[in-house]
Design goal:
7-stranded mixed sheet; 444 residues; Metallo-beta-lactamase, Chain A; elongated; 2 domains; binds zinc ion; Rossmann fold
Length: 444
């Protein structure tokens, strides 16, 4: 007759006596030999003297907590592979997953019935290997269907590929907002519409490659460096099968094609216009809306050196306007309080105010702090206070600030956003305002 195997030894490290009594009673009834440790130090002592086959470890214990005990065990050669069942009242899922990577550790979330512990021990000693995983409270029902929502990226959305004005910046100080110059996308889920070709256009182009050749619509607000410099790095222009339609204003000076492709002149760039294998169309804008599928794009002139426009997208009753460069109320250094549409200094700006009227999403710059603005009048960018006044006048539902000044690093932009909210409160404007950052997406 075969001799039965010796009983398995379980060390219960548990400082609450009512729990340890209940557990050891149940385990002993099922043939286990049990010893109890009431704190972390005692636990380590008993591991040496009692030599358990398995440790049931409470995470919160006096003298040395369970995590320290576990770290200690994993650091010793003799105990690094000791099976451990961790008991915890809190769902420290993340920390525990981390611990599980260090050796065989199973987890029971308190409170649990002794039966659940017995089931784990049975699994460990009588079935192949140990079951590792987190067992939740036994009284919670196991859902039959897992609720696993994922983002529907086929919904209309906007994406910010470049949110910097003037010149790209890089480095740790800019890590949060990013340093690519202007590039904004309106994506219907089907149609890809890009506004401006700053250095952010490079990442936008890479994102389009995965879906294979398609038709991309590229609107240019104006041809300052920060709005066109990404064009030679826009990968789809080199790939046969892609079609890119570029829309620009007639008054840009030279035509839009020579302005964009002039950057690829031999003196500046190693690849020339004739090396672009995509089909590229250049279209002059006029007063009639551009229709792309169900989207309608219109434009209006802004206050900025040279011929500069801004764009408005209308899609299924929702509107978004993209206004990266606009010196609203040029030269005005006073308070935004009391500025209305019929105020003398606002009247000349009525076309842009009317154009942006009641827009759902306003993507508009506010590059200069009111205190810096007097030295930068006429440079083509808004004083923050005047941008706030405009947002209030047009009753925008949401304002996303773009075209961040290259001198404004992340802490400066945080301070600026708080100042923006302070000014909006002062003028009693309840618009929701956030700062754009490179890679940010907003779903309609
Ligand atoms: Zn600009
Ligand atoms: Zn500009």
């Amino acid at each position: 007759m075969a001799t039965p195997p010796p009983p398995k030894k379980i060390l219960l490290a548990e400082d609450v006596r009512a729990i340890s009594l209940k557990m050891s009673h149940a385990l002993e009834q099922h043939g286990y030999t049990v010893s109890v440790a009431e704190d972390g130090e005692e636990c380590l002592e008993k591991i040496e003297s009692f030599q358990p086959d398995l440790l049931v470890l409470d995470l919160i214990m006096p003298k040395m907590n369970g995590l320290e005990v576990l770290r200690h065990l994993r650091a010793q050669q003799a105990t690094q592979h000791m099976p451990v069942i961790v008991c915890t009242a809190k769902d420290y899922s993340t920390e525990l997953k981390h611990i599980q990577a260090t050796g065989p550790v199973d987890v029971l979330i308190k409170p649990f019935d002794p039966e659940l512990l017995l089931e784990k021990l049975n699994q460990y000693f009588h079935k192949a290997g140990s079951a590792t995983g987190i067992t939740h409270r036994s009284h919670l029902p196991t859902p039959a269907v897992q609720y696993a929502p994922t983002l529907d990226t086929s919904r209309p959305h906007v994406k910010f590929w470049g949110t910097r004005g003037s010149i790209p910046v890089c480095g740790a100080r800019y890590a949060q907002h990013g340093g690519n110059t202007t590039c904004f996308e309106y994506n219907t889920g089907k149609e890809r519409i890009i506004f401006d070709a700053g250095s952010g256009l490079r990442d936008a182009g890479l994102s389009f490659l995965a879906g294979g050749p398609c038709h991309i619509h590229l609107f240019i607000t104006h041809t300052h460096w920060d709005h066109i410099q990404g064009f030679p790095f826009f990968t789809p222009i080199y790939i046969p099968g892609f079609e890119i339609t570029v829309y620009g204003e007639r008054g840009f000076g030279k035509n839009i094609e020579s302005l964009l492709c002039g950057q690829m002149d031999r003196d500046y760039f190693p690849i020339q216009r004739e090396d672009l294998h995509a089909k590229i169309n250049f279209v002059f804008l006029d007063d009639s809306p551009v229709k792309i599928g169900e989207v309608s794009v219109t434009r209006e002139f802004t206050q900025h050196p040279g011929a500069t426009v801004c764009f408005k997208v209308e899609h299924k009753g929702w509107t978004a306007a993209f206004v990266p460069d606009n010196e609203f109320l040029q030269g005005h250094t006073g308070s935004p309080l009391g500025l209305t549409r019929d105020h003398d200094i606002v009247v000349p700006y009525q076309p842009i105010v009317n154009f942006l009227d009641d827009v759902d999403l306003l993507v508009h710059e506010a590059q200069y702090l009111p205190t810096d603005y007097p030295k930068r009048i006429g440079w083509g960018h808004s004083n923050l206070a005047m941008a706030c006044a405009l947002v209030q006048m047009v009753r925008a539902k949401k304002w996303i600030v773009v075209h961040h000044d290259p001198d404004h690093d992340d802490p400066a932009l945080h301070a600026k956003l708080n100042l923006t909210r302070q000014i909006l409160k002062e003028i009693n404007c309840g618009v929701e305002v956030v700062h754009a950052y490179d890679g940010m997406a907003e779903y309609a």
